[in-house]
Amino acid sequence: MDQLVVFTFAFVSVLEIALPFAAAFWLAKKLGPSWKAFAAGALFFVVIQLVHAPVAVAVQSGFGAGVASQPLMLAALAAVLGLLAGLFEEVGRFLAFRHVFGRAGIRLDGRNAAMFGVGWGGIESAIVGALLIFTMFIYASLQPATPAYIAQVNASMNGTLTGEQAMLLSAQTQQLLSLSPLDLLPSLAERIMAMVLHVAWTMLVFLAAIQNRKKLLAVAIAWHAAVDFSTVLIAQLAGVYAAEASLLVFAVIAAYYIKNSWPEFMQAAESAPQQTGA
């Protein structure tokens, strides 16, 4: 166990949990949106994932094992998973703006839409941070995957560990123990970039909802799908750092969109009706 790795685990996970709330507090001070919008974004993300995640798992199972060694099948899987993510999340945002904001007493304006986007991307970041903390404790308790260690684990499981499971446990243990601090930093960068993207997508879907511009919803779905497709495919073919580089390109585009579309976004919000139909 490397103490520096444990420290990096803690550092990254705390920031992944804290940064979304820091962003929300900054937005609340700057624009004065409702915290109910932040809570709605977080809640909607969780609800959408409760439906989206099982479907994604079923699709992956349908493609079967060994997909990573078949580039065409991997590309097909990445495309399907990306499209599913775009459909579930962007349509979910659209439905929230059209049918939930008014009923929940949240004013349908740009300030609250932006806060909703921060809550959506923020809860995802916080969940990833919490999982990192869990992983940190597992890492801190690990011992080298010697035969004696595997036998000890097997004994703790009443001897139910099969030979295949023992090999898998050994491989996973070695993989965790071989982590370096640099292996953990991309997770933090990814969460920051993802939050920028979520705000950009939220802006697009908000305009689609209040102006009845379904083309903007289609753009958000396609954009989201493209991001997930490229990161999944590139991560498998070229590694994590190449995938993060591709995500950075999308995040820069998102930041540019946010900066240049913000005036239109806020102006459209000023005249937005407080209740909209389907």
Q: Mind sketching the topology for me?
A:
Layout lengths: L2 H29 L3 H29 L7 H30 L9 H32 L5 H10 L6 H15 L3 H31 L2 H25 L1 H31 L8
Helix pairs in contact: 1-4, 1-7, 2-3, 2-4, 3-7, 3-8, 4-7, 7-8, 7-9, 8-9
Question: What does this protein look like?
Answer:
This protein is an all-alpha fold and 278 residues long. The protein has one domain (3-270). Helices cover 83% and strands 0% of the residues. Helix 3 runs antiparallel to helix 8. The protein starts with a helix and ends in an 8-residue tail after the last helix.
Strand tally, please? 0
SS strand fraction = under 5%
Total helical segments: 9
> What's the rounded overall pLDDT mean?
89
Poorly predicted runs are 274-278
Q: Characterize the overall form.
A: globular
Percent range of helical residues: over 70%
Number of domains: 1
What is the N-to-C order of secondary-structure elements (H for helix, E for strand)? HHHHHHHHH
Structural class: mainly alpha
- The radius of gyration over CA amounts to 21 Å
Main features:
83% helix, 278 residues, mainly alpha, single chain
TL;DR?
The chain is mainly alpha-helical and 278 residues long. It contains 9 helices and no strands. The chain starts with a helix and ends in an 8-residue tail after the last helix.
